[in-house]
Amino acid sequence: MPESLNLETMNNHGAAELVAAIVETRQNSPSCLTCSFQAEDMIVLHLSRNSAPGIPVLFLEAGYHFTETYAFRDQ
């Protein structure tokens, strides 16, 4: 993965590679992932946790979650 992440290099790589590159460039900085567990969030969460299993995940409380969403969050 090129060191410079710009639109041109992003278009030539898959999502997993991009997330891994971003996580790698931030490994010496405090990082976290914010997530409300919507469908698109789950993809980024999955890719991020594959690249950085210990990354903290901050739950965004929107007040409109299903009971199952809270159960998943707590799990």
Structural class: mainly alpha
Q: Taking strands numbered 1, 2, ... along the chain, how are they ordered across the largest sheet?
A: 1-2
Q: Quote the average pLDDT.
A: 85
Helix content range:
40-55%
β-strand number:
2
Unreliable stretches covering 5 or more consecutive residues: none
Shape: elongated
H/E series:
HHEHEH
Give me the Rg, rounded: 14 Å
> How many domain regions?
1
The fraction of residues assigned to DSSP E strands is 5-15%
What's this entry about, in short?
The protein has 75 residues and is mainly alpha-helical. 49% of the residues lie in helices and 8% in strands.
Write the layout of secondary structure elements.
Elements: H1 7-11, H2 15-25, E1 33-35, H3 39-51, E2 57-59, H4 67-74
Parallel strand pairs: 1-2
Helix pairs in contact: 2-3
Explain what you see:
The structure is a single chain. This protein has helices at residues 7-11, 15-25, 39-51, 67-74, and strands spanning 33-35, 57-59. It has 75 residues and is mainly alpha-helical. Strand 1, helix 3 (39-51) and strand 2 (57-59) form a beta-alpha-beta unit. Helix 2 (15-25) packs across helix 3. The model has no long low-confidence stretch (mean pLDDT 85).
Features:
two-stranded parallel ribbon; about 80 residues; mainly alpha; about 10% strand
